[in-house]
Inverse folding.
């Protein structure tokens, strides 16, 4: 039943959604995939206005189909009601996530509120001298989000992301006071294969800035599928960012206190957006300890992020007797080349990254490596010499490694020479 004759429009009906072609409706873009949605709809609500919507919408028996695969999504229940104190309650229940929002909420003003919030705090949308915009929409609400099980959604749309079950976030937003806060903890968060245990996320606004704090007990760069995998990575990883005007001030640190190698780091810097879409980055302080060897990031460098191009100038990681120098650019064509120069670089520093593959190199490396794109593929050029090279405790003497691009064969030419104490192999 749909009744438009009363004081307020009233909707009370049951419907069946059959074969909704989301691509053709412009609701979803999945390339050449055939996307289809089936669902039952039960609605019972009154609508004096969109901002005063009151009632329940129930989507049940949802079935999503893509590339011939069928995914059953259960039900989604959305309800909204007016409370005695004049505020509103908005609730979402589903097999994937639950959410609860209570306070002063005006649906028609949300796009404008988001626009003002973005222009005030996200650097690329606001000039340094521009005053903060006032938001008189009156939005003020508290929210709670319970992510039950997102495996099906992330597997379909963001396969590089995995969030552990029963993750919770909560916070508050007040548009007039410019107040925003967010608190959440994720038992296990995996992004592009980097697994972070006990990941925390805290954010809050302070008049003209937003502060974000992220961290985890341990970040694992490899997962070998056994208990030993817990030793591959870094502990006590923390990241703090303060977003203000046209800059982001950030710091990152880690400390493997419980491990014998004593790996630790503290990096501070800033990113400037005054020339957006070009972003300028500089590390103002950098101290890294790897296998008890201390390195400093020298401040006299420039890092520039342009659309599809990364430029690095005079970047130097300096140790007591060794160094790494970076110069050049990376882009989508062969005109860009990034060069890395090694001076007395200790290969043992790679142990923490190579340990899962059971490769243990030792030796002192000098020379250079260059990276560039060739015919749409990454190509590595090298001219390196490793003195006292050892592989898995096997002494191989000295190693020369040379590679270059052969334009006639359109292939990489590789030459490796090992000089042993007793013989020579080429």
């Amino acid at each position: 039943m749909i009744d438009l004759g009363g004081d307020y429009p009233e909707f009370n009906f049951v419907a069946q959604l059959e074969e909704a072609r989301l691509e053709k409706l412009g609701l979803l873009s999945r390339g050449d995939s055939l996307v289809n949605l089936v669902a039952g709809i039960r609605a019972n609500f009154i609508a004096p206005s969109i901002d005063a919507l009151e009632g329940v919408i129930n989507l049940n028996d949802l079935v999503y189909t893509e590339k011939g695969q069928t995914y059953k999504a259960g039900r989604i229940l959305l309800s909204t009601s007016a409370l005695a104190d004049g505020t509103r309650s908005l609730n979402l229940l589903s097999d994937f996530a639950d959410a609860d929002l209570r306070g002063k909420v005006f649906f028609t003003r949300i796009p404008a509120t988001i626009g003002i919030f973005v222009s005030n705090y996200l650097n690329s949308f606001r000039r340094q001298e521009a005053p903060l915009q006032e938001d008189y929409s009156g939005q003020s609400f508290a929210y709670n989000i319970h992510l039950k099980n997102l495996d099906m959604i992330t597997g379909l749309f963001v396969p590089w992301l995995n969030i552990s079950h029963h993750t919770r976030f909560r916070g508050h937003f007040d548009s007039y006071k410019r107040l925003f806060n967010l608190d959440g903890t994720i038992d296990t968060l995996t992004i592009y294969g980097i697994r972070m245990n006990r990941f925390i996320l805290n954010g809050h606004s302070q008049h003209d800035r937003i502060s974000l704090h992220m961290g985890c007990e341990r970040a694992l760069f490899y997962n070998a599928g056994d208990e030993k995998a817990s030793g591959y990575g870094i502990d006590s990883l923390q990241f703090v960012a303060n977003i203000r005007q046209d800059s982001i001030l950030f710091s990152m640190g880690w400390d493997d206190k419980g491990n014998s190698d004593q790996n630790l780091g503290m990096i501070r810097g800033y990113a400037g957006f005054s020339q957006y879409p070009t972003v300028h980055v500089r590390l103002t302080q950098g101290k890294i300890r790897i296998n008890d060897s201390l390195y400093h990031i020298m401040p006299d460098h420039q890092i520039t992020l342009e659309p599809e191009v990364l430029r690095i100038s005079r970047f130097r990681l300096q140790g007591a007797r060794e160094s790494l120098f970076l110069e050049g650019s990376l882009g989508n064509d062969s005109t860009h080349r990034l060069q890395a120069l090694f001076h007395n670089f200790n290969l043992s520093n790679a142990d923490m990254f190579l340990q899962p593959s059971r490769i243990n190199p030792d030796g002192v490396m000098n020379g250079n490596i260059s990276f560039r794109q060739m015919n749409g593929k990454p190509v590595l050029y090298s001219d390196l010499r490793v003195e006292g090279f050892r592989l898995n405790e096997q002494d191989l003497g000295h190693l020369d490694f040379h590679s270059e691009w052969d334009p006639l064969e359109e292939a990489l030419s590789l030459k490796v020479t090992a000089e042993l104490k007793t013989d020579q192999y080429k």
About this structure: The chain is about 5% helix and 60% strand.
